[in-house]
Amino acid sequence: MTLLSISDVRRRFGDVTALDGVSLDIREGEFFALLGPSGCGKTTLLRILAGFETLDEGAVTLAGDDLTRVPAHQRPINLMFQSYALFPHLTVAGNIAYGLQRERRPKTEIKQRVDEVLERVGLTHAAKRRPQQLSGGQRQRVALARAIVKRPRLLLLDEPLSALDRKVRAEMQLWLKQLQHEVGITFVVVTHDQEEAMSMADRIAVLNQGAVEQVADPVTLYGSPATHFVADFIGANNFFPGTAVAGGLASTEFGSLPARPGAAVPGYPAILAVRPEQVSLSGGPLAGRVLDVSFYGGLSRITVSLSPASSAVSPSSAVPPSPAAPPSLTAPLSSATPPSSTAPLSSATPPSSTAPPPSATPPSSTAPLSPATPPSSTAPLSSATPPSSTAPPSLAASSLLNDKSEMSLSPGGTITVHQHGAPRVAPGDAVELGWAAEDAVLVEP
Amino acid sequence: MRRLGERFTLLGPGLAYLTALMVVPLVLVLSYSIFQRGRFGGLVHEPTGENFARLFDPLYLDVLVTSVKLAGVTTVLALLLGYPTAYAITKLPPKWKTVALIALVLPFWTNFLIRTYAWIVLLSPAGLVNDALTGWGLIDEPLQLLYRRPAIVAGLLYAYLPLMVLPLCAALERMDDELLEAAANLGARPARAFLSVTLPLSLPAVITGCVFVFVPSIGNFVVPELLGGGQTAMVGNLVRDQFLKARDWPFGATLALAVVAMLVVLLMLQAWSARRLQGGRDA
Asked: What letter does residue A52 receive in the DSSP assignment?
């Protein structure tokens, strides 16, 4: 059942459009996340929901009731501030009781409910302390207790974990999720941190420049991003510009690449997104040379400089990798990344600096997607890349979630590959890269 | 011990100045209070408690009480006028905020005596206020505004109102607006949010402002002299008269000591309450 309905909300501040027609439905009892970079409008939306900000156009309804005309102090919505905004002149118990006192509840009821919520957040012993005497994590729990003691229909959390150090974060993340299940209040978390959103939320709305890019559960968002922005913002990705065709992408520079069609329409420009952990280094349509290998404990991160593909029609690994390798074997990373050529279908001629040796396939054969290569035949998924779900959550995994790569790849560009366990290649090795069609997806440019 | 040395290097000049030119004369003058006066003024170095006994003479006690009353009324009025003023100033756009603050301290650049004389012009029977009131037909006869206690309060209030507004401005400026949003979010109407959040958090500044107004008000002798017409003497006038007219230095010193003692107690109360309200570490 829809609890909160946001329809076509617009808000402008002078020349800046903070919200450009945002529509969202948030269900009862859901843990929902508004995710986006700073300046995407998520804070404005949060402030509109709390009643601190007005909207220019659109409607917000809570359980069918129009919220837009209700003043902030009458809304059944509570907010946990990013700064916590605890009252410094009141004790912990006084802070929590504040909202109940405004409802003119009887003293005995206030005391009972404050005690109850203090126990739930594990701060019974600190009831008489002042906020300044508490640690960051404790303050956050007071802020949360103060918000949930009112039993709101909706709880807004503004960057709930951003002020905490790493260790406390993981603890609070788990605890918040548990708490949400226990109290059954609908949570809406606003965050710029994808890890925070992915680990806690049932559904996530990705916002960009005041508009919703995609609303989906974390697994769908990660596995089937709808747009280039989402594919780039959530986790690490490698991008290939081109044209959507049946069975994948036609790239002017790399030939045909296998992928699920996703939201792309055949014949239109599209971008292929493939996760670093889905790329196999043992056979495939692409060739390259390993530039750098770093080991992160459970994972290895391998950077490969791409060569223009010669093997679109011959996916067999029998092709020796050496002729396709770029001449600049010891080239520094900077020279290996050409600044331009990001536009899809720009030109058929690859940048000259990474021009293949004469023995390579002429460019003309790389353009059209050959019907003779069904996606399944390109490369079997290597056993070296087990499904990512089995990976234990580790420091390495979370830091590699933010492993940003180039917005679009061209010959000479670097593709990022994640391998489980210790690296099995070394810098300078010539490798072939590929992936199964179902592991890559076409997104809107 | 190097840090202690550094501290004294920095404190030294100011400390030496204060010690030599204020503490020493003050202690000297106050020490007169235990001696007797000479027949033609001056001092007879024979210890006596007589001066302290005279403090409780109804004649002088009355002056002390009147002084406390007038300074107290001035302080309360300054708070009632100053708080809304300070609140309004902090809500101004930044440019106008600066203008307002400059306007607030601008009178300090003019001589205090001249500003007080201006009040005589305003309040005299043929002054601006009476002229306006008779002109509008509100009164038939000019009111006797000058040389009454309200005139003294008006003068003191005018002189020291900025001392109330400035600390309040500083405190209200520092106030985190998110706390008011939090109060609203928890169900407090704007008026309730003000009473339960803004006001308690600005209380240390309220106390500071009150002390800043009360202390110079109670010791002032120019305003009661000029606007009080010499009829209502405040303790400042009394002290000056003892030294300069009655030539009774020991008693003047005793009166001064009484005022200083009262103010020290007041400042200690202020420091204690400020620490209690701000720190909250003793909770």
From this structure: S
Q: What is the 3-state secondary structure (H, E, C) of A399-414?
A: HHHCCCCCCCCCCCCE
**Mean pLDDT to the nearest integer, B258-269:** 89
- Average confidence score pLDDT of chain A: 79
Find the residue in A nearest to B181 (Cα): A52
CATH 3.40.50.300 in chain A is located at 2-219
* Residue A205 contacts residue A45 (beta carbons within 8 Å): no
B77 token code pair: 């009025």
Which range in A324-333, A426-435, B66-75 is most confidently predicted, on average pLDDT?
B66-75
Give this complex's ipTM. Answer: 0.77
> Which of B182, B279, B281 shows the shortest C-beta gap to A81?
B182
C-beta neighbour count of B211 within 10 angstroms: 21
pLDDT of residue A403: 64
Q: Which residue has the tokens 């945002």?
A: A22
**Contacts for B40-49 with beta carbons within 8 Å, 24 or more apart?**
B40/B247, B41/B247, B41/B248, B41/B249, B42/B247, B42/B249, B43/B249, B43/B250, B48/B250
- Residue indicated by tokens 């239109």: A268
Report domain extents, chain B: 62-275
Do the beta carbons of residue A357 and residue A323 sit within 8 Å? yes
How far is residue A141 CA from its own chain's centroid?
Answer: 26
CA dihedral A370, A375, A377, A378 (to 10 degrees): 80
Q: Would you call B190 exposed, middle or buried from its count of C-beta atoms within 10 A (0-12, 13-18, 19+)?
A: middle
Half-sphere exposure of A249 (CA within 13 A, CB side): 33
What does the alpha-carbon distance between residue B155 and residue A253 come to, in Å, rounded to a whole number?
Answer: 87
Give CATH for domain B62-275. 1.10.3720.10
Assess contact for A65 and A28: CB atoms under 8 A. Answer: no
CA B278 to chain centre: 23
Both structure tokens of A436: 């199964």
B187 touches chain A (CB under 8 A): yes
Residue in the structure block whose two tokens are 């302080």? B75
What confidence tens digit (pLDDT) does each residue in A2-41 have?
A: 899 999 999 999 888 999 999 999 999 999 999 999 889 9
The minimum CA-CA distance between A93 and chain B, rounded to whole Å, is 12
**Pairwise CA distance, residues A44 & A62, whole Å:** 18
pTM above 0.80, yes or no: no
Identify the bridge partners of residue A288 per DSSP, sorted by sequence position.
Answer: A306, A431
* DSSP structure class, residue A278: G
Question: Which of A191-205, A276-290, A362-376 has the highest average model confidence (pLDDT)?
Answer: A191-205
Q: What is the CATH number of domain A2-219?
A: 3.40.50.300
Cα–Cα distance, A25 to A1 (Å, whole number)? 9
Q: Is A12 exposed, middle or buried (0-12, 13-18, 19+ CB in 10 A)?
A: middle
Token pair for residue A223? 């596995």
Cβ neighbours, 10 Å, residue A79: 30
Interface test with A, best of B174, B181, B185, B282 (most A CBs within 10 A): B185
Closest residue in chain A to residue B190, using alpha carbons only: A73
Reply yes or no on whether the pLDDT at A347 is more than 50.
no
Neighbours of A264 (CB within 10 A): 25
How much is the average pLDDT of A285-293?
A: 88
Distance CA A423, CA B237 (A): 92
Q: Count of alpha carbons within 13 Å of B55, Cβ hemisphere only?
A: 18
